[in-house]
Amino acid sequence: MTEQVGTGSAYTDDELHEDLRWWAAANYLTVAQIYLQDNVLLREPLRAEHIKPRLLGHWGTSPGLSMIYTILNRHIVRTDTDWIYIAGPGHGGPAIVASTYLEGTYSEIYPEVSLDEAGVRALCRQFSTPGGIPSHVSVETPGSIHEGGELGYALVHAAGAAFDNPDLMVACVIGDGESETGPLSASWKLPAFLNPARDGAVLPILHLNGAKISGPTVPGRTPTYDVTEYLSGQGWDAIEVAGDDPEQVFRDFQRAVDESYVAVRALQERARGGEEVEGIRWPAIVLRTPKGWTGPHKVDGELVEGTFRAHQVPLHGVRDNPEHLAELETWMRSYAPQEIFDDAGAVAASVRALAPSGDKRMGASPYANGGRVRTELPLPAIADYALDVDPEAPGATVHETTRVLGEFMRDIYRATTTADGGGTFRLFCPDETHSNRLGAVFEATARAWQLPIEYYDDDLSPTGRVMEVLSEHLCEGWLEGYLLTGRHGLFASYEAFTMVCASMIIQHVKWLQHAHELEWRAPVSSLNVLLTSTCWRNDHNGFSHQGPGMIDALIPLSPEVVRIWLPPDSNTLLSISNHCFRSVDHVNLIVVDKQPHLQYLTLDAAEEHCAAGASIWRWASTEREGGRRPDIVLACAGDVPTQELLAAAQLLRDHTPDLVTRVVNVVDLMGLLPPADHPHGFSDEKFESLFTDDVHCIFAFHGYSRAVHELLHGRPDADRFHVRGFMEQGTTTTPFDMVVLNRMSRYHLALEAVRRATWRPDGADELENFCRSQLDRHRSYVVEHLEDMPEVRDWRWS
Amino acid sequence: MTEQVGTGSAYTDDELHEDLRWWAAANYLTVAQIYLQDNVLLREPLRAEHIKPRLLGHWGTSPGLSMIYTILNRHIVRTDTDWIYIAGPGHGGPAIVASTYLEGTYSEIYPEVSLDEAGVRALCRQFSTPGGIPSHVSVETPGSIHEGGELGYALVHAAGAAFDNPDLMVACVIGDGESETGPLSASWKLPAFLNPARDGAVLPILHLNGAKISGPTVPGRTPTYDVTEYLSGQGWDAIEVAGDDPEQVFRDFQRAVDESYVAVRALQERARGGEEVEGIRWPAIVLRTPKGWTGPHKVDGELVEGTFRAHQVPLHGVRDNPEHLAELETWMRSYAPQEIFDDAGAVAASVRALAPSGDKRMGASPYANGGRVRTELPLPAIADYALDVDPEAPGATVHETTRVLGEFMRDIYRATTTADGGGTFRLFCPDETHSNRLGAVFEATARAWQLPIEYYDDDLSPTGRVMEVLSEHLCEGWLEGYLLTGRHGLFASYEAFTMVCASMIIQHVKWLQHAHELEWRAPVSSLNVLLTSTCWRNDHNGFSHQGPGMIDALIPLSPEVVRIWLPPDSNTLLSISNHCFRSVDHVNLIVVDKQPHLQYLTLDAAEEHCAAGASIWRWASTEREGGRRPDIVLACAGDVPTQELLAAAQLLRDHTPDLVTRVVNVVDLMGLLPPADHPHGFSDEKFESLFTDDVHCIFAFHGYSRAVHELLHGRPDADRFHVRGFMEQGTTTTPFDMVVLNRMSRYHLALEAVRRATWRPDGADELENFCRSQLDRHRSYVVEHLEDMPEVRDWRWS
């Protein structure tokens, strides 16, 4: 905390003019990236053939982003602090690329984009072109942990980066458009969760240039008084900076950053000194500058600067319109390129000298390349949490499956908590840690909470590090930011409501997919998503809470990234979790319910089973080694389907003992995909060793049944798989009624197995009659007794 | 506006005590629904066997919801106004059911739940039980347009109901949990869009009881001063009501509702009198009452009332715990059931008399059963917008496909706009109406906007009725509310970002699925979702903007509700839109791009094609009537896939003229499902007439390829379908590079067709060489020229 030099000190005219020069350089390179394929230093008059054939890019937000970068650079040099920069208006890709080029990080990472004329040409030609770089701030952008594209997540990513990084300052620019979104609107609640004693700081910069793509925005047209009230009501003290005169805005913004920094450090010092700070308030900056600032003021007689018309490419048709071409040249020369570049075409040393050095450059910050600072998670031995399952009596005991994961995570918290209360692991969960039976974590830490605490509250503390807020967006986004800055964690959610943030998970898969291809991006911990309170066992909450669609949302995405796990019991869950917590650069979807479920495997058996991805459960099959090959394969994936499938196998065993059955349990869903389509895809040999190549297979599946068909295409005789899964039938009812409604009950499965078996065994008639009569009985029984028939409620494998 | 009687008038002690009696009745029935299966009027001492075996339900929020209902009832009687009630804390299902039972609507709709002891018993036994009703406010609940389940959408549904309903008041209760969500947080921006002159009013009631399921909430623990600032900054004047003394809270809340009503009417009168009201402010109520108010104060020595412990069932194990049983009885008797019910077990006439009458009862409001007030949309003849396509030259012209829909909707706006500027149709679109080429609507109306307007703005007006806000959540949710109250509309979005609100669409499908089963719910207009700016043509925006996953998200849902349309060109889009705007109770996903695309069909041909769902395009096939059956089937669905498939067909025709090809275009994706699985599923006969039963088929598909396999399972020899689709490969690049990256280019398709055809025709070698050389050339060409090769860029069918 002793490094508070520079703050409050004068911003000299020389410094201002240096900064304006950096800014001109950044703006010049931004325009050049959008427009030029040649003559990139304007060393000759601009001609049509210098212009790219397709003009792609967003100018509007860029000058503001570059100004912020400029001032932050000076601030970093003065204070010797660590900052990262989240560019919410990710459209401004060329602006951030320009500044990271000026500071030198770009060329260090991408040597072909060298610091000379050839490099500038490469910089321009690669932008928004095939084989080049995307138009938005992206995984390719040095210093970025935030994809510019789908809007809404700037502030949650910033928050995630700040948690448990006490020395980090996160500048988070939020644009007009993003400020209208749901996730961003919710994320202003951060002061209720950010701990000034142990976390870093987030400095939101609400950058209002007033417009989105073709119209104004709500905050852009809301009077500053109201915006200030809005922020103040959520724990932010807003500083307004507004104007269109660069010198004035630079001075004011520089002061605003300084003041913010002083306020942050003062708050942190109080909290770190042991004071219990009440009514925490963090600084935030409301910055109003014109959209397309310093660009063409009018085009074809129409006002552009300061309006939505500056959003993308303000001068179009430049190749064919000599007037526009001339205007572009005038615009570009207004930045005095001859002063920006030296004779070799390198950025002038006087400009480059303004950047911070080494890892303090925002494009080079190790915080924003989290794999560089990531440490392995010190995982306790899972044997300590294993459920005691009698290997001679699988399926005879009942346990709330997720409890063991809570105990495992409790000790991960303990193993990673530092002496001063920080750490490298967090659990994020809407408001359901207890409900999801993960409450053991509260033995190690509490929920993070900076607002008042009442005597009757449980597990709530300013120093708590379990993150609960009733927003899947916030939970998931915070975790993303936490992981991308090198830490570890898990997002636990009600299965159905994970769809609320499905698009965020999809965008993160896209990020990891591209990050994977960049060697300079060190691997980060996987995004682990626990889907619990699943469709089958939200019998008490009803249809809105019943939906296994996240599986379908992830199946088509990058096979390099996506993993879907369906552990059937506690010990398999432990084994899978242990694997997922070690893995990097994946998105692991773990689907398992929290209610009491049958427990099948010892830890050893579970480890072996999970490593295989799927195996034959001999103890449940009537197939005998060296005996006849199966007449029917009974497969299952997921806890409730496994239970029903086993009950069906038992019915078959007892009623049709001559039928040879084989029970297969699948834990690693992606194993069903052909090996060419997914690295986990079971080899043809393995697939056939499980499912044969021609015997019919009854498959009880946790999710929508056709998802399995989607995966099985390409497997031998895929039509022989008869999948029962969630058929989107639900309401508030009993657990067994759920499987009946969706025709996945033991009786449905047994009926289907008899029908599809290679021959009709003795006892088939009786079995069919029994199944049908049970199904008939079921409904009238539950309507009368308001609970399930005892024979299904209390059923165990034996 | 003359009906402002009663507001500000005294709330007498008699009235207060009447209201408290209604409230006691509602609370009694709430507890009874959660706990009792018998002895529901407590006419004998409570015994264990009267208690349900499973205790499911949420007590915590219920007393507050019931108090609000009570006071609104009196307000409606006094002012003779139309209100509907949105219960954001939908957990409080039993509370809303109780009040609709007390007011008589419940028994009118469900006669078996009669107004006598048998009816009360049925009411209790049906709650949260199989064959009964869900535990949450749901589609079964009279007067509801809002499913209690996934939180976040109360205020957007309320807003949608209020748009264009000038006489309607929408009470919107927002609970603690919901207030933390993203969508709800964003929806406070409503005052920027709600027009006091032409729209109805929304009265938000932020009901803070301080806790969610197991902890406090941010607004629940935020000082009222801050909450007030937060709301004020967004255009709401908050009135606080807080306390735990029922008499005091009832008086205060009654006054708050009165004051709010007066403020609303005053604002509306000013606006409706022609005044341009600046700085519009709407009233909102912040209500703080204890969670589980009037319930058990302590249980087993632990504080329950006012804490998270009152969330669900405050007394558990009542069957086995005599103390809890006694406490339950004491609690229930505290509501004096003997005064609520008459000797026959009917609700006392003095209580029932407090309800408004007829359709003014909130459970009976026609506004909340929108199909009852819905009028057919007066659709102009689509021939007026048809694109002139030469039937002799399909695929020879180019047009921005979605433009015709903009023109169509412009005239729908015109046809539905009333003399005073209201209407029954709205377009909702993040900020992309122009970008999506739907801008013609602005010839009929402007964007809705109540904030300041600048001289350089386009198409912005307080009376505008195009809804643009950069939030898919708001757009989609507003439209849901608009449709459920009997109107019509369309939500247009960038394809990838529709995933942002995927969970909302899924929940709406669930709503319609259940509504469909209830005869008393009159059909409402379908939710029409236009997915444009699609994955293939977001070449300029990059990977984050490229994702066809909405298709996968909808496929597994209710076949009664879900329709997916892939029109290949303008006239098919017109035909499909025309159909969708007439349809009811569906969710129509229409996937079509906005960029210039080849146009194939005349309107007549398009109408025929769309009615068929899929047809053979003879003009593009080399198959001749009476000739040999095809050697290969070339199928396509979606605009870009159709173009590439046709280009491949042309390559085959030109290079391998002896090969008999058949081109099939699919518009109605659900036609691929077996008819048993979807009402649109093509019959076996039709399917074979299109695809044969054994010839291999190359299928170019808009979305992820395995989605087609998911649909085709169960069709004859489904393995012979070779689908090329989006493979999750993307970046900022050229349009043709996108199809190359995803291996769906004409060259890939032609190569695959030759490989899969029944025989190897002359010319196959040359064709393969040509395709491979073109693919080789492509990448180096675009890297050099920064645009696509002219032969693909300028390709036309001929």
Descriptive report:
Two copies of one chain form a homodimer. The first copy, chain A, is α/β, with parallel strands linked by helices. The first copy, chain A, has three domains: 16-367, 3-Layer(aba) Sandwich (Rossmann fold); 382-596, Rossmann fold (3-Layer(aba) Sandwich), CATH 3.40.50; 615-793, Rossmann fold (3-Layer(aba) Sandwich). Helices cover 37% and strands 14% of the residues of chain A. The first copy, chain A, is built from 27 helices and 22 strands. In chain A, the strands form six sheets. In chain A, strands 12-9-13-14-16-15 form a six-stranded parallel sheet, sandwiched between helices. In chain A, strand 4 (236-242), helix 11 (246-272) and strand 5 (282-288) form a beta-alpha-beta unit. In chain A, helix 1 packs across helix 11 and helix 21 (639-655) crosses helix 25 (746-756). Residues 1-6 of chain A have low confidence and may be disordered. The interface between A and B is large, with 127 and 127 residues. Chains A, B: Belongs to the XFP family. Chains A, B: InterPro entries: THDP-binding, Transketo_C/PFOR_II, Xul5P/Fru6P_PKetolase, Xul5P/Fru6P_PKetolase_C, Xul5P/Fru6P_PKetolase_CS, Xul5P/Fru6P_PKetolase_N. Chains A, B: Residues 594-797 form the Xylulose 5-phosphate/Fructose 6-phosphate phosphoketolase C-terminal domain. Chains A, B: Its cofactor is thiamine diphosphate.
